């Protein structure tokens, strides 16, 4: 789809990749970008050069009430970007039980419920796109962040199911599989990290080009290639992490 004249909503828009996506979509000519955040007062771009386009919206994706209110407030959406996410640590045997619940509530159920609320609106507006921020860790698990990987793998599966369902509604569905990106989420990680602004530009390019599976940084592209050639090779690569 073309970004020009689209009406987008980005969840988790107040920092990291989400904030960069809001800026990139506004700069590419989106007519309106709903910048959804748990605390809209924390949105840095509401006062920036795109303030005429950016509309702050309250949205905690774990709240079914707030999802319903957001959908009622933004009925003109044609592009949903499910970006909100959390990263918790811990293995299958020792992850904190509360973290297990939170991982699924935000990274899987939040994405699922937000999608179910907005897809009918996008369809009613003539079609558009859904973009899900997943991870290379959706493809193969890193045992030290086992529940994040499990939640992202579930979101990846939902993305592919939705793709089949949404095609008849004139909606394209895009999965995004970054490696490490230089945001708060990856703050403690000592590795090559992509620039969130460049990642956002690559995602917006991918939407316009209709790319279903996006690897928005070079490390992700290499890992995707390895996974395509031999899925188990990635399990082995990540096993020590
Ligand atoms: N950074 C990486 O290396 C990396 C790699 C692969 C994939 N990703 C994915 O990319 C997406 C963005 O990550 P990021 O790196 O930009 O992370 P980030 O800097 O930690 O930002 C996370 C965003 O999600 C929001 N959020 C968290 N819980 C929420 C909830 N319940 N409801 C609504 N918003 C919520 C945060 O809002 P608050 O400010 O209110 O907490 C924040 O805006 C995530 O889905 C992440 O899994 C990131």
3D architecture notes:
This protein is of the alpha/beta class. 44% of the residues lie in helices and 14% in strands. Helix 1 packs across helix 5, helix 2 (64-73) runs parallel beside helix 3 and helix 6 packs across helix 7 (231-238). The protein is globular, with a radius of gyration of 17 Å. The model has no long low-confidence stretch (mean pLDDT 96). The structure holds NADP nicotinamide-adenine-dinucleotide phosphate.
The H-and-E topology, N to C, reads as EHEEHEHEHEHEHH
- How can the largest sheet be summarized? 7 strands, parallel
Strand line-up across the major sheet: 3-2-1-4-5-6-7
Beta strands, count: 7
Q: What radius of gyration results from the CA coordinates?
A: 17 Å
The bound ligands are:
NADP nicotinamide-adenine-dinucleotide phosphate
The separation of the N and C termini measures 37 Å
Unreliable runs: none
Average pLDDT over all residues:
96
Number of helices: 7
Short key terms for the protein model shown above:
single chain, 44% helix, 7-stranded parallel beta sheet, alpha/beta, binds NADP nicotinamide-adenine-dinucleotide phosphate, 241 residues
Task: Detail the topology: elements first, then pairings.
Elements: E1 7-10, H1 16-27, E2 32-37, E3 54-58, H2 64-73, E4 79-82, H3 97-124, E5 128-133, H4 146-166, E6 171-176, H5 196-209, E7 213-214, H6 218-229, H7 231-238
Parallel strand pairs: 1-2, 1-4, 2-3, 4-5, 5-6, 6-7
Bound molecules: NADP nicotinamide-adenine-dinucleotide phosphate.
The site of NADP nicotinamide-adenine-dinucleotide phosphate (NAP) has 29 residues, from helix 1 and helix 3.
């Amino acid at each position: 789809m073309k970004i020009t004249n689209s009406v987008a909503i980005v969840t988790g828009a107040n920092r990291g990749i989400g904030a960069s996506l809001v800026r990139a979509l506004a700069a590419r000519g989106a007519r309106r970008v709903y910048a959804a955040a748990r605390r809209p007062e924390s949105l840095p771009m509401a006062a920036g050069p795109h303030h005429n386009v950016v509309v702050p919206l309250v949205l905690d994706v774990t709240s079914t009430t707030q999802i319903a209110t957001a959908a009622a407030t933004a009925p003109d959406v044609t592009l949903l970007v499910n970006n909100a996410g959390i990263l918790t640590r811990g293995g299958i045997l020792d992850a904190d039980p509360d973290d297990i619940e939170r991982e699924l509530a935000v990274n899987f159920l939040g994405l699922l419920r937000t999608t179910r609320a907005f897809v009918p609106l996008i369809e009613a507006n003539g079609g558009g796109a859904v973009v899900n921020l997943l991870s290379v860790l959706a493809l193969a698990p890193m045992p030290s962040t086992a529940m994040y990987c499990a939640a992202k793998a579930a979101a990846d599966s939902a993305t592919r199911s939705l793709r089949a369902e949404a095609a008849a509604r004139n909606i394209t569905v895009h999965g995004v599989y970054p490696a490490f990106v230089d945001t708060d989420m990856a703050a403690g990680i000592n590795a090559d990290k992509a620039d969130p602004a460049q990642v956002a530009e690559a995602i917006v390019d991918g939407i316009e080009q209709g790319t279903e599976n996006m690897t928005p940084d070079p490390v992700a592209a290499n890992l995707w290639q390895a996974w395509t050639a031999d899925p188990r090779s990635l399990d082995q690569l990540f096993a020590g992490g």
